[in-house]
């Protein structure tokens, strides 16, 4: 049987939410099953999100965390932790991938996730509208062996692993059967909101693997970009307080 893919998406109510969730949902529908989409909202499960999830035709779970990610650097941390707890509690067996709602993913990426045994990583192109350039972040590989890192100059040399949140995936049994995988971290594997900005990924990954020898460059050679991390920063876009309009819009 095919391996289960467990896709974890933190999301919150804002003007672009319906656009992002529809776009990602439609892509996930094209991925060969079995796939479970764990969508985690902040504060409350919104009716609009529930409706979108129902309509995508993807197997999903709609979770909520009441812990507020009010600190900007911790975006999505508590939501991802709620999903990790859920997977541990239900002993879900599959490949876990953190797919933020706003990034762009190729279908090929999801297909390559099933070849991961313990921990897979690949380079991601970071696109920031404000910076006017693309930055590569992730492994340099020789076959599936990780031999170095593409990094952005800001944190060069400080972070142990130069991986984007959307640039790795791992076997969920690590969460509830860590001994089997010789995990270096004794406690439940979680994301922490006390971590310095930019260090969330490496801190998480250090709990899962000891070093590059336990990583798999995915797909081998790591020479293709399979997803793009966008920084569109559309936080201040206003919207009409809900997506279901009660009456027709006046179009002039
Ligand atoms: N997110 C959230 N609440 C927030 C901010 C972000 O749930 O207050 C989610 C967002 O929907 C996305 C993920 O957390 O899936 C990462 O957010 P964002 O892309 O803004 O962070 P960046 O990747 O730019 O650091």
Provide the descriptors you would attach to this structure in a database record.
single chain; 252 residues; alpha/beta; seven-stranded mixed beta sheet; five-stranded mixed beta sheet; 12 strands; binds uridine-5'-diphosphate
Give a quick summary of the entry.
The chain has 252 residues and is an alpha/beta fold. It contains 6 helices and 12 strands.
Describe the protein's architecture and organization.
It is a single chain. This protein has 6 helices and 12 strands. The protein has 252 residues and is an alpha/beta fold. α1 (17-30) runs parallel beside α2 (47-56). The N and C termini lie far apart (56 Å). 37% of the residues are buried. The structure holds uridine-5'-diphosphate. Uridine-5'-diphosphate binds at residues 9-12, 42, 69, 75-76, 79, 100-102, 231.
Helix/strand order, N-terminal first: EHEHEHEEHEEEEEHHEE
Would you tell me the structural class of the helices and strands?
alpha/beta
Unreliably modeled segments: none
First-to-last CA distance: 56 Å
**DSSP helix fraction:** 10-25%
Order of the strands making up the biggest sheet: 3-2-1-4-10-6-11
The distinct bound ligands, ions and cofactors come out as: uridine-5'-diphosphate
Q: Would you report the number of β strands? A: 12
| Largest beta-sheet characterization | 7 strands, mixed
Overall mean pLDDT: 90
Strand content: 15-25%
Count of discrete alpha- or pi-helical segments spanning 4 or more residues: 6
Radius of gyration: 18 Å
Shape assignment: globular
């Amino acid at each position: 049987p095919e391996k289960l893919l467990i896709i974890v998406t933190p999301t919150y109510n804002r003007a672009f939410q319906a656009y992002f969730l529809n776009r990602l949902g439609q892509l996930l529908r094209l991925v060969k099953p079995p796939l479970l989409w764990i969508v985690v909202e902040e504060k409350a499960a919104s009716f609009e999100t529930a409706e979108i999830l129902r309509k995508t035709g993807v197997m999903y779970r709609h979770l909520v965390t009441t812990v507020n990610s009010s600190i900007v650097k911790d975006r999505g941390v508590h939501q991802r932790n709620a999903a990790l707890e859920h997977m541990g509690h239900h002993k879900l067996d599959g490949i876990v991938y953190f797919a933020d709602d706003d990034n762009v993913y190729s279908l090929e990426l999801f297909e390559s996730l099933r070849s991961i045994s313990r921990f897979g990583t690949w380079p991601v192109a970071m696109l920031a509208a404000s910076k006017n350039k693309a930055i590569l972040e992730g492994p340099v590989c020789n076959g599936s062996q990780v031999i170095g890192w593409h990094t952005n100059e800001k944190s060069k040399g400080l972070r142990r692993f130069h991986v984007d949140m959307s640039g790795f995936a791992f076997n969920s049994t690590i969460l509830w059967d860590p001994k089997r995988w010789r995990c270096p971290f004794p406690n439940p594997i979680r994301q922490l909101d006390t971590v310095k900005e930019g260090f969330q990924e490496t801190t998480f990954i250090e709990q899962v693997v000891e070093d590059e020898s336990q990583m798999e460059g995915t797909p081998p050679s790591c020479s293709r970009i399979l997803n793009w991390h966008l920084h569109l920063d559309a936080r201040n876009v206003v919207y009409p307080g809900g997506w279901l309009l009660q009456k027709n819009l006046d179009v002039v």
